[in-house]
Amino acid sequence: MKNQNTLIGRILKSVFFKNANTRAANYATDRNSLLGLLKDTLSKSNTLKGASFDGIRQKVALLSRMLRAYTTGEYRAVPTKTLVSVVAALLYFVSPIDLIPDLLPMVGLTDDVALVLWLFRSLSTDIDAFELWERQQKTIPIG
């Protein structure tokens, strides 16, 4: 990372993200924890109202579908590093207390949104592979 003073640099170095990253490994191996995280993630995502949050809601929904497919065993082509990174980012996303607490009107979600956008750029190859797999599942006739 070139500039550690960027918002993403501060998030990744924060005690809040380090805590989420530590917890992520345990979540990644516990189906019930993952399903609970998915529920919390979608619940928080649905509170993001307005057209300006459409892209973030779609990205969070895609990450949630990828984790759900992984959890159910339908899609296992998620590298461990990617799985832990996604889980850590979603744990951070759902936490109301982080680098910029969600309780602060308007600015409280800035770090959460920045982290999701960074995650998509960082893991684009793995996320794109899942999207391709997902599209292929919809085009395969069943029965």
Topology:
Elements: H1 7-13, H2 15-28, H3 31-46, H4 54-72, H5 80-94, H6 110-122, H7 124-139
Task: Quickly give the structural class.
Answer: mainly alpha
Could you give the count of β-strands? 0
The major pleated sheet works out as:
none
The residue-averaged pLDDT reads: 87
* Regions with little confidence, pLDDT below 50 for 5+ residues: none
| Strand residues, percent | under 5%
Helix content: 55-70%
Indicate the radius of gyration in whole angstroms. 15 Å
Q: What's the overall geometry?
A: globular
Number of domains: 1
Number of helices: 7
N- and C-termini, Cα separation: 49 Å
Order of helices and strands: HHHHHHH
Describe what is shown at a glance.
This protein is mostly helical. Helices cover 70% and strands 0% of the residues. It has 7 helices and no strands.
Word description of this protein:
This protein is mainly α and 143 residues long. The protein has one domain (7-139). It is built from 7 helices and no strands. It is globular. The mean pLDDT is 87.
